[in-house]
Amino acid sequence: MTNSWQDSARQKREAILAAIPAEWRLKDLPSVEEQRDVTGDYIRGFLTEREVEITETDAEKIVGKTTTGEWKAEEVTRAFCHRSALAHQLLHCLHEIFYDAAIASARSLDSYYAEHGKPIGPLHGLPVSLKDQFHVRDVETTMGYVGWISTFEGKKGTGKEKVFESEMVKELRILGAVLYCKTSVPHTLMSGETTNNIIGYTLNPKNRNLTAGGSSGGEGALIGLRGSPVGFGTDIGGSIRIPAAFNGLYGIRPSTGRLPYEGMANSMDGQNTILSVVGPLGTTVGSLRLVIRAILSQKPWLHDPLVHDIPWRDSHEQQITSLIDSTDSSKGGKLCFGVMRTDGIVHPSPPILRAIDEVVEALRSQGHEIFEWNPPSHQAILDEAFKTWEFDAGSDIKSAFALSGEPMHPQVAGFSELEKHYKASEIATVNVRLRELKKVYMEYWNSTAKFTKTGRCVDAVIGPAAPWPAARPEKYSYYGYSTWVNALDYTSVVVPVTEVKRDVDVVDANYVPLGERDRKSHESYDPEIYDGAHVSVQLVGRRLEEEKMLAIAEYVGKVVGK
Amino acid sequence: MTNSWQDSARQKREAILAAIPAEWRLKDLPSVEEQRDVTGDYIRGFLTEREVEITETDAEKIVGKTTTGEWKAEEVTRAFCHRSALAHQLLHCLHEIFYDAAIASARSLDSYYAEHGKPIGPLHGLPVSLKDQFHVRDVETTMGYVGWISTFEGKKGTGKEKVFESEMVKELRILGAVLYCKTSVPHTLMSGETTNNIIGYTLNPKNRNLTAGGSSGGEGALIGLRGSPVGFGTDIGGSIRIPAAFNGLYGIRPSTGRLPYEGMANSMDGQNTILSVVGPLGTTVGSLRLVIRAILSQKPWLHDPLVHDIPWRDSHEQQITSLIDSTDSSKGGKLCFGVMRTDGIVHPSPPILRAIDEVVEALRSQGHEIFEWNPPSHQAILDEAFKTWEFDAGSDIKSAFALSGEPMHPQVAGFSELEKHYKASEIATVNVRLRELKKVYMEYWNSTAKFTKTGRCVDAVIGPAAPWPAARPEKYSYYGYSTWVNALDYTSVVVPVTEVKRDVDVVDANYVPLGERDRKSHESYDPEIYDGAHVSVQLVGRRLEEEKMLAIAEYVGKVVGK
């Protein structure tokens, strides 16, 4: 009577496609070889001029028009629905499609505006995509698990199926956002590549040889192809920043306790040594700021017990803009950036190093200070951080696979081999050690005030988000550049910088790897395969510095011309 | 060659006494029967008029004089040293005495003032006592463990012995505070009575039949006898509020992440489901506000990785004062208090119920609203919270006792019987459950806005901090009234209300206990034994509402005449 996991997966996969109106279906899908890059003119070819105009407008400008009645929510919504439908067919980036509900919701927003002459909230008529960890009424949350189909987080008969909504979903609705799709994730969420047995492998729109990243890979692919103006992902080891970086987007990993995670599905829920956080990805910093400010205006600390009562702080942004505008660079009235070109464990690939250099040069030319970042051991931090992923010996993940009998993809198969189940005193040791490492790093950061010309501490650290511009399938082998940030609970924003140029970003034939892990990483980069891919950097700030880091990221984006 | 634990304990006990100057030693110590209450005129009999004046001035007024040069730091320090020395002899409340260092530090503050004509900081010349979890250079931290004598947290040769200082100690020095003693704790810290094999049992100065409370019991006894104007304790299940309540003091349990715990000794360090927090006890709310504001002025979030970047918020206080001053009580422009007379598990004793009624009547007479608090199950919250104390099967505590072979006192002997060591997935289950319970409680609190006349949520909940005004030795049997606050991470302030009156606070002969636990609690109360003891209530606010709750506590103290 019960379906095989293959049947269940296929039915779900077909149901997702079936939610796409016939007129938006692509008849002939090009192969990767035929069409490596599906962004730009390629995707525009399937859209009207008006749809292109709408979908290539950033979130901030969209609400500038939808909250003033210049654009109708329905038209905006339809345009993004159309483009997201194309994205899914070309990239496999959606888990749930609910265009009808979205259009109904857009219409009711338009009615509200017509009746009251004002928007319902600051996100009135803005389509927002959500990673498939958010619970949205009337649709499922599978998180890529076949065994979660027709359940609530793997359980049947909870009464929450297709009814329960995550806290942030409720807030987005109040703010006037239009929800229309949920985006793909790797099963387990614990991978920098997005693949699962339901929708397959999520491709990178700029270069379909490569992954869109993970675990918020569907968000990365979708927004990368402008099928969404802004969306929310989550990040426990890089899962917002990796897809942002791989798709030429801005993405922020806020510190824990800034945005509400309440009521979302998760992997290994209850592991509270390093918490997953939720945060936006978008095409501009303004988009990220818009949605964060909007969410904070809802006082999420009254609805999520883990959110701190910290409203949006304009003054933190203003401090940065006045430093930027300062003409007093001789006395150090400007910004000061640390630069970390390598963590000494795995060296970044040539395009990443070039991107860092371009950022450094652009900032230096504007009179900002650059400081060589020589931090305490990242290896020591990572050693503790990676333990947290294994605390429960993979039991939560194994049980999710056991529901259907589906196999684990190679990217996460390590979980099936875990045997050691940490006990309380071992977890306590990790907690103490991580706190000590945070303190040491914090005092290193404090100490920079003694060496900078500004006399202030380094404002942000420029470094890689990953060793490569993106990863080739089954080659995402190193999480160190993103995970140290989670371990220290720092605020971090990814900034797009450039694209891979096959003739410039060549491989050093004489390169001597630092070890086996570095060798694997080194060998996975190939200028031919990577040509045209987005290249991004990560800007890391201290804990709970979201306003400051967005202001810095916006400025860095400007000086590098993005 | 190694001492027996008895010898080590005796030597340490004698060394503490030996640090008291001969002229401050009491020759004849009165028995409890001879002198139940050692506060007031009794203790004053050993002091000069000037010493009484100084030591009966609250912290806020002290710094009003020491920061303006009206009082010399040295004279203030000497007065509190003297009174604290008397307190220790009568109550056994100190673990470390360093009067010489304190006087030297006070002199250097006086020199600074003489030279610069201004104070070194907002706490210039204020003596501050510290629970024996703070590391202070030149003295030990035993935390009541014989095995910790001559070690750093039980370890030898760390290089930190008598050198390392806790973060807050450094900040207090910068602010101009004078450190002069460390106060007693129960071994393990996990008890509402303070007793250990080094200094014995810490008595309640107002009624020496009773405990001074725990685990910050030394702080409670010392400040209760005015041997300190303000001091810092810690609280994981009630350890600030219990001694504050038992000694007629104000004490605040801030939410986690508000004040720096960095670099302090602890029990079961690394258990991060429910974190211990640090907070002040003092004779007035002004004292607590003074030291919290001062600490926050040091931006502790730059030196403690677990502290949030939340400066002192004047506006939160002002909102309360304007509500209090509002004359618009008909429309609900006043405050609204929930009142919880019982948690339905253990009923409070008669004097606690009378204190709650007195508070309720006083507030009602001022036009404030009183709301019957019918919260979600406290039993469910406590079930999860108490598990956290047992996660490691007592292994951390057992190993501390094993260092010397000393026995556990009956109040904490339960730890020796623990066998179940929680594993990661079991801890995760507790974490998820606690988060769910927090959410449910949060939404109950939110829902009160629908029922109050103010149309706002309840501002604070009035309830017991413990079932009794204090506990008789070995009879502290129930932590539910304090620990629910830790489990939910709420802000809570204890407010003194009245004293036990043997003729008023009589036992109901027809009382039917709710169960065995309630029976034990009920039988431990005896009006004769308790006569004269302080009676306090607890005011509970939501998470990170320190400014608001201090303002409310100050007002409540005023209306009940304390």
UniProtKB/TrEMBL annotation, chains A, B:
What does the entry list as the binding residues for substrate?
Answer: 189, 215, 236-239
Q: Does the keyword Cell membrane apply?
A: no
Q: Which reaction does it catalyse?
A: a monocarboxylic acid amide + H2O = a monocarboxylate + NH4(+)
List of catalytic residues: 131 (charge relay system), 215 (charge relay system), 239 (acyl-ester intermediate)
Q: What is its EC number?
A: 3.5.1.4
**Entries under PROSITE patterns matching the protein:** AMIDASES (PS00571)
Family to which the UniProt record says this protein belongs: Belongs to the amidase family.
Q: Name its species.
A: Paraphaeosphaeria sporulosa
- Keyword Oxidoreductase in the entry? The reply is no
Record-given protein name: amidase
Domain Amidase span(s) in chain numbering: 75-550
- Locate the transmembrane regions by residue number: none
The top of its lineage is: Eukaryota, Fungi, Dikarya, Ascomycota, Pezizomycotina
A Pfam family (short name) is Amidase
InterPro entries named in the record: Amidase_CS, Amidase_dom, AS_sf
Q: Which Gene3D superfamilies has this protein been placed in?
A: Amidase signature (AS) domain (3.90.1300.10)
The entry's keywords: Hydrolase
